[in-house]
User: Which sequence fits this backbone?
């Protein structure tokens, strides 16, 4: 992998604090790698965004898992 | 008109259940979303797969491909659009897992969009349906006033895509696109849309602010949620940039005289509480209007929903019901934005155990909260 992370290290350290290490690591990947990982999950797991029938745009989705 | 009564009954059952019992399922730890996926999910071909728990189909899908397919069709039809929300956060490297897609389409382009959907259904094995809780009909008269509309698009391979549509996204004054990939909404649009009452959305707002530092200090100052970083950008910004940002975000006025990070953090929390309360008041108005409409519709002798029919017929069906039963095109306008803000501030004062004086120091203008 030769592509450099898009943002300064300070940004990824902040992401790790606010969103977790795993998401920060994923964010460091080049875009193509990030999409590849997401595509893999879509292909191998059926993981809907949430379990609610009410769209979050209409009821806030505050408690949706 | 062919009606699948079993499907209709199923839709009515779910809507009735949800009108009685809002779906309070539990709070998720969004920071470990991917871990949650790994923990819960089973391979797609497993009979114990997570899909077996859902009322939706468990068809596999290629949501990223679908984005590009629909974007290309919109472009060819001359429809102005932007992919936003979750998929835009994937695009900006902030969200790892999402399948649904959210699209902003300029209200005046919804006629062409409906034509596009009807054309899509004329192709083999494509299917377009309103979802049981569909929001508003895809009419510019509704969409221009902040309603959302909710579709299920089935691709020829059976993949089902949940598509959510906005005409006037909340808190967004003007639709702008990412200059690096115009299929997507700009960071500014996505950050504004994420100022909700969902805790999971605020790290996105903050991160989009961080990403904006080298592109637009004004936007960075408008969206950053981290006190130390905000103060750092403020000190580097030019006077004209500060003033422009301050007009959108009065909290920035405190930075001229106060550099205490903890105190600033306290004001950031109060400001966020205002956004949360305003958003809650805002969507509650749409949800209430929709429930009133739907309950009245259920009592009609000819009521049937969902309707097993081509999309164009479904659209005429919901449009006719919405007109007949007075689903309000502009519920926010009917209530009045000042009233919504007043209620939200009263709630924020109680929730934050703070004073109206503190709230007034950081309250964003109505043009930001409810444009």
Assistant:
């Amino acid at each position: 992998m030769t592509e450099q992370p898009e943002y300064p290290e300070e940004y990824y350290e902040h992401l790790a604090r606010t969103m977790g290490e795993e998401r920060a690591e994923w964010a460091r990947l080049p875009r193509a790698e990030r999409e590849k990982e997401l595509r893999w999950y879509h292909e191998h797991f059926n993981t809907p965004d949430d379990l609610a029938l009410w769209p979050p745009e209409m009821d806030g989705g505050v408690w949706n898992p | 008109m062919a009606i699948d009564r079993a499907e209709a009954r199923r839709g009515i059952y779910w809507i009735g259940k949800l009108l009685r019992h809002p779906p309070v399922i539990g709070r998720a730890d969004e920071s470990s979303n991917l871990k949650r996926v790994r923990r819960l999910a089973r391979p797609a071909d497993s009979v114990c797969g997570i899909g077996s728990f859902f009322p939706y189909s468990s068809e596999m899908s290629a949501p990223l491909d679908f984005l590009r397919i629909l974007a290309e069709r919109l472009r060819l039809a001359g429809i102005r659009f932007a992919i936003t929300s979750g998929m835009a956060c994937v695009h900006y490297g902030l969200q790892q897992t999402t399948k649904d897609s959210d699209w902003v389409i300029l209200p005046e382009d919804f006629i062409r969009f409906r034509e596009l959907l009807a054309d899509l259904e004329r192709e083999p094995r494509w299917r377009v349906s309103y979802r049981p809780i569909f929001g508003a009909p895809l009419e510019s008269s509704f969409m221009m006033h902040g309603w959302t509309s909710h579709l299920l698009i089935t691709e020829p391979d059976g993949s089902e895509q949940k598509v959510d549509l906005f005409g006037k996204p909340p808190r967004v004054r003007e639709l702008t696109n990412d200059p690096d990939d115009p299929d997507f909404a700009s960071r500014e649009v996505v950050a504004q849309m994420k100022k909700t009452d969902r805790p999971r959305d605020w790290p996105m707002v903050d991160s989009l602010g961080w990403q904006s530092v080298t592109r637009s200090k004004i936007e960075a100052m408008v969206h950053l949620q981290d006190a130390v970083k905000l103060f750092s950008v403020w000190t580097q910004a030019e006077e004209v940039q500060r003033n422009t940002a301050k007009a959108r975000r009065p909290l920035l006025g405190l930075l001229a005289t106060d550099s205490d990070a903890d105190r600033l953090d306290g004001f950031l929390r109060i400001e966020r509480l205002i956004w949360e309360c305003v958003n809650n008041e805002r969507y509650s108005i749409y949800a209430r209007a929709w429930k009133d409409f739907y309950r009245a519709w259920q009592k009609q002798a000819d009521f049937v929903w969902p309707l097993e029919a081509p999309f164009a017929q479904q659209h005429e069906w919901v449009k006719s019901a919405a007109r007949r039963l007075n689903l309000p095109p502009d519920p926010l306008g009917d209530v009045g934005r000042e009233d919504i803000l007043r209620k939200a501030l009263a709630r924020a004062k109680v929730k934050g155990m703070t004073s109206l004086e503190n709230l007034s120091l950081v309250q964003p203008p109505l043009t930001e909260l409810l444009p």
In short: The radius of gyration of chain A is 15 Å.
